[in-house]
Request: fold
Amino acid sequence: MRTTYQHLLIDQDGGVVTITMNRPEVLNALNATMITELGAAAEDAAADSAVRCIVLTGAGRAFGAGQDLNDFAAGYASTEPIKVSDRLEQYHRIVRAIRAAPKPFIAAVQGVAAGASCNLALACDLRIAADNARFLEAFARIGLVPDAGGGFLLTRLVGLGKALELALLADEVSGPEAARIGLVNFCVPLAEFPQATHKLAQRLANGPTTAYALIKELLYRAAESDLNASLALEGQLQDTAINTADHREGVTAFLAKRPPNYTGK
Reply:
């Protein structure tokens, strides 16, 4: 996959690729170039068969401060209405790439994750946070609505009532509190954060990748469908899973009482 970007760092360690948003001088605020690059990098990593887990994180002391409002300076100076829905499609490209990726995406969050940056973290399959993390649906503070998929993602992670609280009051949520309410999966001390992220990513990279892809499809589609449709899909996906090499290896390893050696196939 491509590794050279203006505002991203790409690092591959075995089956794990880490995509690092790299504008630390502005807390990784998302400008047009970074947003476009994130879409491309997410799609590339998703399509690369050598990649079995993807970590999204930020350089320096923050995950991301959200949209760089300097991008809209000219629009604010004009008396003409500003239209951003077309530009939001670039965010939607990233969210779709993460959700459709046939492998796990992990958001690794330390420091602030605000606005659109917060919602890109919520789009990932799993989230690990340092105890200094701060999650902020900042939009109402500047008279906007949650974007980058926030309206969809928030309600499914924490429920409608809590989602309304986070969006309307726009208060910060600490890493430990985010774990308590289900906004993130794990919260660890900052000193342990790099090692814990590495361990989680390697665990997933060494797992049954095809089964992970099918699990993502089943759970994400089940969240938007009725029981009968979900049961039908479950059967279709299990027909695929049971014929994978990883399933056969898992059964063989179980019967032999040894750890499985999954290849992702």
